Amino acid sequence: MSDAAANPALEAAASAAPVGAQASIGQIFLEFLLIGATSFGGVVPYLRGSLVTKRNWLDDKEFVEMLSISQSLPGLNATNMAVLVGEKLHGALGSIAAIVGICLPGAVLIYIVGIFYRIHGDHIWITAALKGVAAAAVGLILSTVVGLSKKSLAGKADFVFIALTVIAVNRLHQSVPRTLIAVGLLAILFHRPRNKQKESAAQ
Amino acid sequence: MNQIPALVRVFAYLSLLTVGGGMAAFPEMKILTVEVHKWLTFPQLIHLYSVGQMAPGPNMMMIVAIGQWAGGILGALAVLVAFFGPTALLAFLVARLWKKLERWPWRTSIQQGLAPVSIGLLLAGCFTMAKGAIFGVETASIAVGVLLILLQYKINPALLVLGGAVVGVISFMPK
After folding, report:
1. Rounded distance between C-alpha atoms, residue A139 and residue A136, angstroms
2. Are A125 and B162 in contact (CB under 8 A)?
3. Do B3 and B77 touch, CB atoms closer than 8 A?
4. What is the interface pTM, i.e. ipTM, of the complex?
5. Which chain B residues are closer than 8 Å to A97 by Cβ?
6. In angstroms, what separates the C-alpha of A77 from chain B's closest C-alpha?
7. A180, B58: Cβ pair inside 8 Å?
8. Which residues pair with A74 in a beta bridge?
9. For chain B, which has fewer Cβ within 10 Å, the N-terminal or C-terminal residue?
10. What does the H/E/C string look like for chain A?
11. Residue among B64, B131, B27 at smallest CA distance from A134
């Protein structure tokens, strides 16, 4: 299996059927380590470029499917994707290799940055820069909110659920799990499966 | 005092709140790490999160710095395992189950229902953060500027966060 992957010709032949794609633990670890070290500004596009385009471990349909599972579960998209792809390629060990690989570079970097910040964080240059960085991060999160709303909302009623969630957490100071369960159940019930006749009549 | 058990408890709990992204856990993270355990101040939490946006990899890596401050290298490792372990295990189990549920009609309902709630949690986390990060014309302009640029152009967000640092130095350095 690792021989096949080392040989470009065989790899190309195997890539015709990515559904059955396999990879060694070492390959999985290195590929995710590379993604973890280079994915500045958001992991998802890098994941796609690496796993679908470059390695051919997944096809586009599988990638989108796995991404939608990742988004529905607790956990970050990046680490959930690592677990799902690792599992598909090499079972439990594949998952572990992928998640350790994708986390390692950022974790080491932030470990060092954290120590540096602890010592020099009150330097006037740094506090000035950090005020700008924090404000920019707020803008970045807002753009994610807009992007996700365009992509994943099913109707106008969803804006009510967004508003309820924000009010519960920010105004009523309800805990996140309580809000998640209450508004989540409401929204899931609202989007409950309708029977087919009704659905086709509505269309 | 040994903070490791508390770190593990807090970050394992926060782990399960990250529905739709790490920011969903931010309001609880503020309460637990700043107010309850006093591992860091609110401005420090905001700074770590924001600086983390410039690092590659999963975007909540700033938790490593909190672990390091509270419990050294063991604290950092404990936080990593506690924060990524539970959700990784859940994803692993669901990966096997989800395919079998392909025809289960509630599967789509769950996805459609969780989408607006996770966007709401992201927005709530954003507002919690904005309370500490936006405090005047300069910071508000930076946030709005970044938002508008990202909506208009395809540009790497890490570069804009870096740009925020430059604007910050220009605006807030004592003359």
Report:
1. 5
2. no
3. no
4. 0.87
5. none
6. 7
7. no
8. B19
9. C
10. CHHHHHCHHHHHHHCCCHHHCCCCHHHHHHHHHHHHHHCCCCCHHHHHHHHHHHCCCCCHHHHHHHHHHHHHCECCHHHHHHHHHHHHHHHHHHHHHHHHHHHHHHHHHHHHHHHHHHHHCCCHHHHHHHHHHHHHHHHHHHHHHHHHHHHHCCCCHHHHHHHHHHHHHHHCCCCHHHHHHHHHHHHHHHCCCCCHHHHHHHC
11. B131
pLDDT mean values, one per 10 residues, chain B (175 residues): 92 92 91 96 93 89 95 96 96 84 82 88 90 91 94 88 91 81
Nearest to B165 among A39, A73, A133 (CB): A133
Q: Tell which of A32, A33, A58, A73 to mutate to test the B interface (max B CBs under 10 Å).
A: A73
B56 chain-A contacts, CB cut-off 8 A? 36-40, 105-106, 109
Q: How far is A21 from chain B (nearest CA, A)?
A: 17
Token output for A138? 């707020």
Residue B72 C-beta-side C-alpha neighbours within 13 Å: 3
What mean pLDDT comes out for the span A53-58? 90
- CA dist B14 → A75, B23, B82 (Å): 10, 10, 9
In chain B, residues with a C-beta closer than 8 Å to the C-beta of A153 are 115-116, 119
Shortest CA gap B37–chain A (Å): 17
Helix (H/G/I), strand (E/B), else coil: B41? coil
Tally of CA atoms within 13 A in the half-sphere of B143 that contains its CB:
24
B172 neighbourhood in chain A, CB within 8 Å: 127-128, 131-132
SS3 B156: coil
pLDDT at A29: 97
Instruction: Name the residue in chain A with its Cα closest to that of B167.
Output: A132
Q: What SS3 class is residue B24? A: helix
The residues that bridge with B19 in the sheet, in sequence order, are A74
- Domain ranges in chain B are 4-133
